[in-house]
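Q: Convert this sequence to structure tokens.
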Amino acid sequence: MYDSEPEKDKDTVKRISLATGTGRRRRVVDKAMTGLVLLAVALAVTPLVLILGVVVLRGAPVMSLSFLTNLPRPVGVPGGGIANALFGSFIMVGIAALIAVPIGVGAGIFFSEWPESRLSTVSSFTNDVLAEFPSIVIGIFVYVIIVLSTKTFSALAGAVALSIIMMPIIARTTEESLKLVPMTLREASMALGVSRWRTVIKVVIGTGKSGLITGILLAVARAAGETAPLILTALGSVYFPTSLNQPTAALPLLIYTYAISPFKDWQAQAWGAALILIAIMFVLNLSIKLFIGRRSVVRAET
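A:
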């Protein structure tokens, strides 16, 4: 009877030591995994920081008001700017958004709200295939369809090429954001007698609009940085466009042309144009995030 008590004490000591050892191993594993996650974050952020650093260091010296408002000048002539490229980019991306946003959002709504349809399944698969198409192939397609037909490079052809690039991105992000809306909201709306199309517009889109706007923004950012399709459709120009049916400059085209040139002043302006393009994307992203965040705060307060 008395001999069993020391054995119980030994078992208790063993259990405590095992628990202590297990706890130590868990803490070590936890710290190791936390370190690996932080390392992965650092590796993911490092390229962005390096790119931004190089672009800012090389592009900042050419920044001035005249750089943004003047037209390009010949090699050897001091000054010159990117005003025509800025204007051309805004024109082509704007027209592309006007074409792609309604079509892409409509397709995304169809994919999300009518998944049982065979047409929806086939169209969704086709949309995914189109999203993976090389942009140069889209440029060749628009070149054959529009440029050869009109016998001129044009801003309109460039906008159509960019819209084809934007549509599958908008459609897919719209579908995924609307799928996150709980089905109970749809059922509650229709249970109150609201028609399905009004439920989709008022309830589903209203609830998932943050993701929808983010998808549109991603598509705009993708289109704004495309170069290959514009080489085959808009071609570029050193003048302001006076119509949509003539060659038009764009920031990616100017950056490409100036960056591969052997002239140092053009190379410096290419870095400046790249800095402007990144700044536009940053301001656009920041504005949308602030807008969405403010709307969420207002909704929570009400």
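The CA atoms of residues 77 and 265 lie 9 Å apart.
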